[in-house]
Amino acid sequence: MGKKSAPRRYADNEAAAIGNMIRTSPQKLNLVAETIRGRSAQEALSMLTFSRRRIAITVKKVLQSAIANAENNQQLDIDRLYVAEAITGKQMVMKRWMPRARGRVGRIVKPFSNLTIVVREREEKA
Fold first, then answer.
1. Rounded Cα–Cα distance for residues 80 and 78 (Å)
2. Cα Rg for the chain, rounded, in angstroms?
3. What is the share, in percent, of the chain residues with pLDDT greater than 70?
4. Which CATH number is associated with domain 14-121?
5. How confident is the model at residue 90 (pLDDT cuts 50, 70, 90)?
6. Closest-CA residue to 19 (of 66, 79, 74, 82)
7. Are the CB atoms for 88 and 26 separated by under 8 Å?
8. What is the 3-state secondary structure (H, E, C) of the chain?
9. Do residues 93 and 112 lie in contact, with contact meaning Cβ atoms separated by under 8 Å?
10. Half-sphere exposure of 45 (CA within 13 A, CB side)
11. Res. 89: pLDDT tops 80
12. Which residues have a Cβ under 8 Å from the Cβ of 73 and sit 6 or more positions away?
C-alpha cells in the first residue's frame, strides 16, 4: 500500500530536462535560452555549439539531456523534436563582501539560476 504515483506533468509527445544551480544570472541565461526557443533540436544544438557565450555549454548539456529523455523514456523521434519551452528562473544568490577604501565595503553578488527545457515532437503534416 504505497502512495499513488503523481500524474505526468508533460504530455505524451514531450519530454523535459531541468538544470538546477547554474552559476550565472537568470538574465544572462535567458539571453541564450531565447535563441533556441521554437527551433528544431538539431538547429538549437548547432547554435549552442558555436555560441560565444560561456553559459551556452551548460544550456547545451541540458538540451542534450532533454533529447535523451525524449528518445529513451518517451520513445519520441529525435528528428522531429523542437524546443517548445526554455524557461529560466532565479535560484539562490551568494553574497560576498570586498573591503574598499576608507573602511567601506563592496557587496559582491553571485547569482544562480534554474533552466527547464521542454522538447516536443512535431505533428506529421497530412
1. 5
2. 19
3. 99
4. 3.90.470.10
5. very high
6. 66
7. yes
8. CCCCCCCCCCCCCEEEEEEEEECCCHHHHHHHHHHHCCCEHHHHHHHHHCCCCCCHHHHHHHHHHHHHHHHHCCCCCHHHEEEEEEEEEEEEEEEEEEECHHHCEEEEEEEEEEEEEEEEECCCCC
9. yes
10. 16
11. yes
12. 15
Amino acid in the structure at residue 75 = Q
Q: Which residues pair with 113 in a beta bridge?
A: 22, 90
User: Whole-angstrom Cα distance, residue 75 to residue 94?
Assistant: 40
Name 50's Cβ contacts closer than 8 Å, sequence gap at least 6: none
36 by Cβ neighbours in 10 Å (0-12 / 13-18 / 19+) ranks as: buried
Give the position of cell 516536443.
120
